[in-house]
Every structure is written in C-alpha cells, then in structure tokens.
Amino acid sequence: MATANPVNNLNMPGQCQFCGSMRQIAPVTFHRNIGMLVARQTKSLKGNFCKTCVKKNYWDFTAKNLLLGPWGMISLVVTPIYLVTNTVSYVSALQKLSGAVE
Predict the structure, then answer these.
(1) Could you tell me the pTM of the whole model?
(2) Which of 17, 28, 63, 90 has the most neighbouring CB atoms within 10 Å?
C-alpha cells in the first residue's frame, strides 16, 4: 500500500478564489484596519490565491493600512500588527509560489 507524500501536492494547480483562474495557488490571510478616531473598521481576506492576486491584495491592504490605519488609539496599536502579519503571510505565499507562472 502506497502512502501519499504531502510534499508532492504543494504546487498542484487549483482555482484561485479571488480571480477564478486555474493556476498554482497558496493559502493567504490579509487584514486591514481603518481607524476613525473613536471607531474602527476591520476587514479580513482569507483564501487560496494565485501569485498575481496575492501581490495585488497585499499591496492594496498595505496601502490602506498605512494611509487609513493608525487614526485612533486602538488602531495605532493594531495597524502595525496587521502590517507585520500581512507581510509574513505575503512572503510565505510567494515562497510557496516561487515557480508559479503569473
């Protein structure tokens, strides 16, 4: 009886949950915070995305975190945490998709 090797399944193509194309995908989670002095809005994006969608969403979430994130007491603490966790998720996904075609 043969056992499946999980390493072989890492670069298998699948459907990107953002754009719907069939490409190599990697799991990713991004968070965004918008501070509004006395309130804040958060948004999370989690799924299996292709390399193009990973890059697009990372830069979109990073730009909004930098421009709109730190406007409030809680947001001043949460935004840098989101920036770091988003960057870790981004780098991890790009490593998994290093040989993927865009």
Answers:
(1) 0.84
(2) 28
